Amino acid sequence: MSNSTIQTLGIVGTGAMGRGIAQIAAQAGLTVNLFDTNAQAVAAARQYLQDTFTKLAEKGKMSAADGEAALARVKACAALEDLAACDMVLEAIVERLEVKRDLVAKLEAVVREDAVIASNTSSLSITAIAVGAKKPGRVVGYHFFNPVPLMKVVEVVDGISGDPAVGDRLMELSRRMGHTPVRCKDMPGFIVNHAGRGMNIEGLKVAQEGVAEFVDIDNIMREQAGFRMGPFELMDLTGLDVSHPVMESIYNQFYQEPRYRPSPITSLRSVGGLLGRKTGAGFYAYPNGQKQVPAAAPVPAARPASVWVSRANERGHAMTVKLLTALGVTVEAGNQPPADALIVVTPLGLDATTAALEEGLDATRVVAIDTLMPFEATKRRTLMTTPATSAAARDAAHGLFASDGVPVTVIRDSAGFVAQRVISCIVNIASDIAQQRIATPTDIDLAVHLGLGYPKGPLALGDTIGADLILEVLRNLNRLTGDMRYRPSPWLWRRAGLGLSLLTEEA
């Protein structure tokens, strides 16, 4: 296989992905040959690119001359044979394995011996696509994200029979086109779609258990955990016609691994046509295209007469006492709560009921607060009640913890708070990807940060919070529920035990 620089790129399929890749390639100086079985689609794609370059020039993001030159490098092709001189051909066609295999066979009959054949598949195995190819070593995954010009990450996927030199050429090409490449082995979901299971799957699990409403879970993940969007906002944006099949596909491709178990919530809503923004209704309603959010309930005026904070979690105790002091409360100092005090517990991965029972506390006065993340770093606080917590205790805690203007969400009793569960699953799945050597820790974090818009990569997020705290949450979740979805990855528990960064690779 030649290591020469790729100068001429053929693209088969001129939908949104094909056009986006053509745009960044032409802007980078490559000659782009476009082909689609529908000749009108090729003409429409070229017109789209002309309009795009004109708009970019009008906005001052490129000169008119550069726009004209980029468009001149985009050639319309009437037949596959017109791609014969390409250094590389990328397919961006329908996600059906047999159709892609058939295209690979046709391309091999056309292109040069040293030409690269790449697939932009998001869900199919690169190894499976290469089956039957005369030269499977040159078949490689090249997975861009939509919209291509704005999503600056691309996954370079090595199939089992792939030639590493081919992947090396695509890594170099990606950088020339202004994108950040990440390298991974051929496994279901590659990096981004694999790692993305933690947010959506666990968010759905929380909702399915009746712990909190969709909007509450989104608010917590956005304002307490610091994510750009919560799971239900994200699924509404993507559309359940896309998200739900991906969930099912990854779950089945990993032979029903519990970490990836889908929820019947998305199955039912898909059947009912509640797909998200594209249908005007999903987890939220979108009248006139605008998300409709229910009004927040008023903050209770009640305040507790006194407050006692459990010391079972020393870190949580210190954080909560510091917050309460800032709120003007003097915390009761005794080893046991006074008879009239609000009892505050700070469990990690436990429910408020278990915390109350294990400490012998009066469950009618117990309210738990989430201390996984530092209070000063969050814009929302989450409280949890037991089934026995009185309305007076609940309202007094809500009023107190919201008294400085920071919004508070009160959830029902659950093994672990919302942010604890979702973040721990995100970190754990990324740790498992690293454990399987699907990609390097650095590439995992780069791919997820750029591909999913998380505030930082999942492994760096675990380091920031503390791998030991994430591990404690998962162990308690696993102990209470018996659900293997919370089984800690060896990558996580070994590094937590040794005090190492989750980004640490073995020598």
Automatic annotation (TrEMBL):
Keyword annotations of the record: Oxidoreductase
Ranges of residues in domain 3-hydroxyacyl-CoA dehydrogenase C-terminal: 189-286, 416-496
One of the GO BP terms on file: fatty acid metabolic process
Record-linked InterPro entries: 3-OHacyl-CoA_DH_NAD-bd (IPR006176), 3HC_DH_C (IPR006108), 6-PGluconate_DH-like_C_sf (IPR008927), 6PGD_dom2 (IPR013328), NAD(P)-bd_dom_sf (IPR036291)
Residues in 3-hydroxyacyl-CoA dehydrogenase NAD binding domain copies: 9-186
TM region positions: none
Domain of life from the UniProt record: Bacteria
Molecular functions (GO terms): NAD+ binding; oxidoreductase activity, acting on the CH-OH group of donors, NAD or NADP as acceptor
Native organism: Cupriavidus metallidurans
Name of protein: 3-hydroxyacyl-CoA dehydrogenase
